[in-house]
Amino acid sequence: MAFQRSSGQRLSRQITVYSVLCIVVTFLTVMLTAVWLSRSHDRQAAAVSRSSAEGILRTAADRLAEAAGNVANRREIDEAYRTEDRETLAEQFGAGLYGRPVDASALVTPTGRVVLSWREQERQAPLGDAVTTALNLLASEHETGRGRTGFARSGDRVMLVAAARIIGGANAPFSLDRPFLMAVQDLGDEISSLGRSFSMPSLKLADTSTPGKENLPVRDPSGQVLGFLSWEAPQPGMAILMEGYQFLLFALAAFCVTMFGISYRTRMLGVALAESEQGAQKAARTDGLTGLLNRRGFLEFITSEEAEKAARSGNLAVIFLDINGFKRVNDAVGHSGGDDMIRLISSRFAAAQPAGATLARLGSDEFAMVVNQSVASRVSEAALRLTSSLSDPLTVGGLEFQVSCAVGFALASAETNEPQTLVRQADTAMFQAKRIARQEPLQFRPSMDTGTQDKKNLEGRLRQALRNGELEVYYQPIARASDGAVAGLEALIRWPGGMGSSSPIKMISVAEESGLIREIGDFVLERVCEDLVRWPDLRVSVNVSPVQLRDPSFISNFRAVLARHRVPPSRLEVELTEGILISDPAMASKKLAQLRRLGVTIALDDFGTGYSSIGYLRSYSFDRLKIDRSLTNELLRDPQGENLVLSVLAVAAAMNLPVVAEGVENAQQFERLAGAGCEFVQGYFIQRPGSAAAIEAFLQSQAVAVAPVSTDGKVVRLGRTRAVSRRLVGE
Asked: Can you give the residue ranges of the EAL domain (predicted)?
């Protein structure tokens, strides 16, 4: 309980911390976002105001340039200058500039000598640096008719200077030797006037940059700063923020209060959830019947840091136990009695386990124990105490039962210091002990792994063979017993040169365990659909593994392959063993119904092995029954074997179910089966399995009659083919 409380407290603290962090982060995010948005809005407004200030400065310059240009372009000004008519020049200057936004004007020679000058109040006033500025403005002039502007300082004032060369009319030739008209204006007064007109009342001309305000430098033609336009930058974003901050703070306060309430409630729920989860986790790791660790709890324990540390130090052993005869108890007293038996066994194991050991129930009748021990003899003694605890009979339901157990164990060593490896080794040793019916505990030896390693090697080579295209599809004919006509073929997977001493059955077993059977099945189906073009009158049987049938995409893939190769479904027959019917009857029934709707016929393969239940024949409505070769081999050996085959044939005949006898290897078997009414035979006596080319050659060279496939999927009966029959029976 202490662990549970501390876990719940940690979870509660974490929830509280995360909630507070969420509130703080949300508050800061909202506030910073609001400030950032207001600042961004203010920056945009400042940029707009700066553009306006630049526009005002350009407007002032353009207005003065226009005034100077209008006067300089008059023909009267040019004639008065050439005739040195000062009176006319004075009148024209006054007519042209007085009344315009100009403080002063002057007529200047190309060398910079002021011929005449006027001011608004007094004429012939000195103009200071304005003349120099005007000369600089006109020094790079390439065309006439337009005024040029610049800025110059005159005492403590910044002046706007405009210069326009007198050209004497629009068609007069351009020459740098002609005089020019210069106009001067106080920039400060003009800027203030334009600022009011452009809704910038704070715009002023200052000698220096004003802190806290927006500033735009005013430069003379040489680039020297003469002064600054200064104005108050608008701050609409901050104004909006200040107007709405009260509402924003109220909303954030409401959010914080709500979050605090939610966090408190969540914390309380977290405490309850943590306590409930602790109970659920314990229940998930505990076997409900015995109170021991279950498989999940055992695996978590064996992979814990403590167990791994013990394994690395060589101080760990794993013991596996499997109860012998438990099924007999279940059959005698039922599952409830079996549960009582498991409780009794677990209590005896618990009483016999060494101090510090951990006991677990892994399955219905499988147990495991982890011991902190590195000496084989002591581990064997501990395991022997467990087996000895079952020496006395167990009483269940008023009946006494004597049970025993197969025990295997594995020790950690320098070579084997991983707990998961010890688990696998102990399991291997236990199964070995069970296989040889050993009563004493059996220690794992590396030689026990040989079979497992062989499977791994075979799996690797098989995977490589699939990638390299080393697998082939062989075919074995299925002949009609009445006349020897070939009625179909069975597709068989083969690995030429790759199997070695391994049988095809072992290859299929490894493929099923590794999942490669799906790829193999797809390969076989594709190849069969390609080869069916060779035999337009034959049906081909394809074996389907339970692993393939369990695949959710099996039916859709099957249908897609048939459609891609344009193969009618009636030309294929699917062969299944009864294993899938036993392990998952609901799934098998569903998949068989889907195959049947697709138009594929279905055969029950290897009948005579396993349960061979007639109930399966009635429940699943197979199209054909295949007798296993083991029954065919017993046909001529003893009367009991023959009677068994005859019984199967009789049952099939009663159900109107065609039968194929597999493993027919001689004429005697063939004749006996044909005489007993078996419709089809298959085996070496007919033809060994071969490649598609070999089977095609067999069909052609031996003059074999072929029984075509009818439209309803049934084999059409033909008359006896004497040549084939003679070859089959040895006449």
From this structure: 455-703
